[in-house]
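User: Fold this, then the next.

Assistant: Folding the first:
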Amino acid sequence: MQAADFTPNRLEAMKGIAKDFIKRSGGNRIGIYIFAQDTFTQTPLTTDHTVLLDLLDSISFKVIDHSESGGTAIGDALLSATDSLQKAKVEKRDQVIILITDGESSYGVDPILAAKYVKDLGIKLYAIGLAGEKPIEVYVEGKPYLTPSGKILVTSLDDKQLRKVAQTADGKFYRARNENVLAEIFSELSNLSRTPLDIQKTRLKHSYARYIAFAAMQIFFIWILIDGLLIRRPMR
């Protein structure tokens, strides 16, 4: 995600567009999960978008120790997100996973099996492949990022696997080759139809029957008094 085919790099470009997406997401619950060889919960599902934006902004290359956890575990990431969604499921509400990666899965659970699980649970999957057209060398803080063999890392994206993952989940695949395409993708996702939360409204009803009956009884007794004491009737 440090490749500079996006400005200033893939990670920062993605964060900028994701912030805009969060701001336009209304009251929807959103969670952020970051992954390499391992998956980490940056924030669980929440409607507190201020916290989401702060935690999204704190994501950096150094968050994960790439010497220990470098790699790409797409299947594990899908399962982690799915588990969180299932624990917070609300009936009649759509659930969506937006998967963003610039690499193919190289660790963990088979992403195709994970995609089948996502489909079985009725969760919508949108997979975004984040990479330019050509292979590109990777630099971190201006210095070349070296592989264990001492060569500079060159990254590219073969999106065949991601396309199959999206297809297996009955989802949709996007290839983001530059910032403009990435912005268009998130704009489309932010306009997806949503089922509103089912909010039950309770109307408190007051019954005035007893008050009316009480008033009628008072009028009746007053009439009896007037009739018996004040109005003189002829003797029968």
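Now the next one, as you asked:
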Amino acid sequence: GCGGVIKPDVVFFGEPLPEAVFAAAERAMAEADVVVVAGTSLSVCPAAGLPALRRTDSRLVLINRTPTSLDKEADLVFRSPVSEVLKAAVDGL
């Protein structure tokens, strides 16, 4: 009724990430024991740089159908759909 534009709470390609959200992601990377990167080519910055902020002793798990720039650094790499890998992980708990 106000004539304003309704926008979903997502970041569209080309838009900057909200600073507070990105800062929280940076903190989470620095604190994580395990980092799971799922369904991304790791080619869109700045989010693509987040895994590099993880601790040197943290584990890295990649789930992506195609190779990424971090495959050689990963402790585990899955080349299957994210939904299948995560379902199998949850079913195995």
